[in-house]
# Entry
Amino acid sequence: MVLARAFKCGVVSTVLLWGIAFSSLAYAQSKEGNIIAVLDIPRIMSDARVIDDINSQLKTLEENFENDVKKREEDLREERVQLGKQKVILAPNVFAQKQEKLAQKVGKFRQEVRDQARQLQRSKLVALDEVKKALIPIVQEVSSRKGANMVLETADLLFADKSLDLTAEILEELNKTFTKVTVKVVPLKKS
# Structure
C-alpha cells in the first residue's frame, strides 16, 4: 500500500516536471519566433514527375537486362543439350571436363546476373540521391518564403496541423524546376 502510494506520487511529480519543462520549451520557442514547417518526403518521392522519369528509364534498363539474360540462358541450355548429345561419343574424362567447364560458365553467368541486379539497384539509389540533393534548395527557398526556420519530416511526427505542411508547394516547385535525371548504370566496385 505504501509502495503504491509512493509510486503514484513519483508518477505525478514526473508528469508535473515534464509539463513544466515542455511549457518552458514552448514558451522559449514562441518567444524566439521559431516557425516550424513539415514535409512529406515519401509523398514527394512518389509523386514527383522526375521520379516517373527515373522509373521509366529503370524499366527500360531492366527490360534490356532481362532480354539479355533470357538470350544467354537459351545459349547455355543449347550448350547443355549439345553436350548431352556428345556424351555417348566422348571419353568419360573428356565429357567430365566439358561438363565442368559448362558448370563454371553457368556459375559465372549467375554471378553476373546478381551483379547486374545490384548494379541496377545502385543506379536507382544514385538517381534518387540526385533528386534529394535538388530538393534541399527548394525546401530552403519555400520555407524561407513562408517564414519557417525549421522543417521536419512528417514521418518523424505524431501530429502536425495541415497549415504547417509545405509538401504541395515544394512538390509543385520541384516539378517545375527539376524534371529529368539521367539514370547512369553505376559500375560495381571490385572487391
The chain has one domain: 35-177. The CA atoms of residues 76 and 190 lie 26 Å apart. The two ends are 66 Å apart (CA to CA).
